[in-house]
Amino acid sequence: MDGNGRWAEQRGLSRLEGHIEGCKATRSVVKACVGLGVQVLSLYAFSAENWGRASDEVNGLMHLIEDALCEELDDLIGADIRFLASGRCCELPESLQRMLVGAEKRTADEDGMVLNLLINYGGRAEIVDATRALAYRVQAGEIAPEDITEQLLRECLYAPGLPDPDLLLRPGGEMRVSNFLLWEIAYAEIVVMPVLWPDFDGGHLIEAIVEYNARQRRFGGVPGVE
Ligand code: FPP
Fold first, then answer.
1. pLDDT tens digits, residue range 112-123?
2. Residue 151: helix, strand or coil by DSSP?
3. Averaged pLDDT of the chain
4. Which ranges in the chain belong to alpha helices (H)?
5. Which of 120, 197, 200 to mutate to test the pocket of ligand 1 (most atoms within 8 A of CB)?
6. Is 179 one of the annotated active-site residues of the chain?
7. What is the pLDDT of residues 57-95, one digit of tens each?
8. What is the pLDDT of residue 221?
9. How far is CA 4 from CA 26, 33, 164, 172, 177, in A?
10. What is the full DSSP assignment across 94-125?
11. How far does the centroid of ligand 1 lie from the alpha carbon of residue 117, in Å?
């Protein structure tokens, strides 16, 4: 959800006001995804690197995410959305942790779209955490080092039950991955759009999906060769 800061700067507003506006865009994009039958939407809300920002921006973001979840929870349930939080959540403020756990519990039986919120998330940290989990299992004698496969490591990532993303959609125009779902996006199609996140809407989402649909996915193979 990139570009909130630039959107605010262009209008002489604070970065936090950009995030507040970004939150409104998030609401409309979640609705659009449900309407389009998207199965999983992963949103990058706060990266493990974002702690380096000014403390009022960081604190403001924490409150904003907590308030947004509190306000939207009934609507998430009403739309059959299952909520998940991915990241090192134990390092977040306690009230936010409680909110995240509560939202996961209250939506656990919903069988519509999954909304996976990446918060205090880093792709490298996720791989380190999975590696540690496997190392402990080796140390405990549960598995041997030779038992470690791509599939086993995948099962130790934060959201093992979710499929790998088909489409990585980056608003804000930056041509980089920024530590987002590094393992999971190995074969994702990347669409970068210049539109800043607060301006992003369902029409932009459809534009990205049209571009995705025009791609030929080969997963390292050659078309027509079995
Ligand atoms: C990146 O823009 C955006 C963020 C770090 C925060 C995004 C979070 C939200 C919109 C809140 C969503 C909340 C819920 C509960 C779904 P940036 O600040 O890096 O923008 P810039 O590149 O223009 O500086």
1. 999 999 999 999
2. helix
3. 97
4. 4-10, 15-36, 55-78, 94-106, 123-139, 150-155, 202-213
5. 197
6. no
7. 999 999 999 999 999 999 999 999 999 999 999 999 999
8. 87
9. 11, 20, 26, 8, 17
10. HHHHHHHHHHHHHTTT--S-EEEEEEEE-HHH
11. 12
Token pair of 19 as six digits: 């995030």
Please state, in angstroms and rounded to a whole number, the distance separating the CA atoms of residues 69 and 223.
Answer: 44
What residue segments make up the domains of the chain, in order of their start? Answer: 4-207
pLDDT in tens, 28-64: 999 999 999 999 999 999 999 999 999 999 999 999 9
Ligand 1 atom nearest residue 25's Cα: 10
For residue 26 and ligand 1, the question of a CB distance below 6 A is answered with yes
50 tagged catalytic: yes
Question: Using a 6 Å cutoff on CB, does residue 4 contact ligand 1?
Answer: yes
Regarding the beta carbon of 23 and ligand 1, being less than 6 Å apart is answered yes
The answer to whether 214 and 207 are in contact (CB under 8 A) is no
Q: Give me the residues paired with residue 118 across strands.
A: 44, 86
Is the CB of residue 181 less than 8 Å from the CB of residue 40?
Answer: no
CB neighbour class for 224 (10 Å; exposed up to 12, middle 13-18, buried from 19): exposed
CATH superfamily of 4-207: Decaprenyl diphosphate synthase-like (3.40.1180.10)
